[in-house]
Amino acid sequence: MPMPAHPPKNPSSPFSSFRGHHVGIRVPDYDAAKAWYTEKLDFRVLQEWPYGELKLAYLCPPDDDNFHVELLGGPVPFPQEVLNDLGVSLQRGGYQHMCVHVDDVDAARAELASRGVDLIGEPFEIEDISRRLAFFRDPWGNMIELSQKLAGAGS
């Protein structure tokens, strides 16, 4: 089933300049996280800077300059629970995952597996949104979704 057309844009909104820019991910070990995202996912380091006791960085996907992951690294007094099940994660409030588009979920997932990335469950399709999806997580339990547009899908 193709996605419906987007609702009309609202250029008169005082928030019409809103655009996606980055998602922030809090990690206990900045250097390990930077290495994981750059080595396992081929992210590129755009900028690094200190903020108080933390080390921060903007990382960009391999071929996208418009979306960033902001790493916020330093000791975490209240680490999140690492979950092994997508369904269980949906029972929690707050941050759930970030999503990246891929051309082929299965090929991306196979490459992640070859790099030792922790995969969660099996790929699945949701016809209501015309997507094939799969999940994996970083070593600190932050879930990342792979999303592939199904053939014949609209937006």
UniProtKB/TrEMBL annotation:
<feature type="domain" description="VOC">
    <location>
        <begin position="19"/>
        <end position="149"/>
    </location>
</feature>
<dbReference type="GO" id="GO:0046872">
    <property type="term" value="F:metal ion binding"/>
</dbReference>
<dbReference type="InterPro" id="IPR037523">
    <property type="entry name" value="VOC_core"/>
</dbReference>
<protein>
    <recommendedName>
        <fullName>VOC domain-containing protein</fullName>
    </recommendedName>
</protein>
<dbReference type="InterPro" id="IPR029068">
    <property type="entry name" value="Glyas_Bleomycin-R_OHBP_Dase"/>
</dbReference>
<dbReference type="InterPro" id="IPR004360">
    <property type="entry name" value="Glyas_Fos-R_dOase_dom"/>
</dbReference>
<dbReference type="Pfam" id="PF00903">
    <property type="entry name" value="Glyoxalase"/>
</dbReference>
<dbReference type="InterPro" id="IPR051785">
    <property type="entry name" value="MMCE/EMCE_epimerase"/>
</dbReference>
<dbReference type="GO" id="GO:0004493">
    <property type="term" value="F:methylmalonyl-CoA epimerase activity"/>
</dbReference>
<dbReference type="GO" id="GO:0046491">
    <property type="term" value="P:L-methylmalonyl-CoA metabolic process"/>
</dbReference>
<keyword id="KW-0479">Metal-binding</keyword>
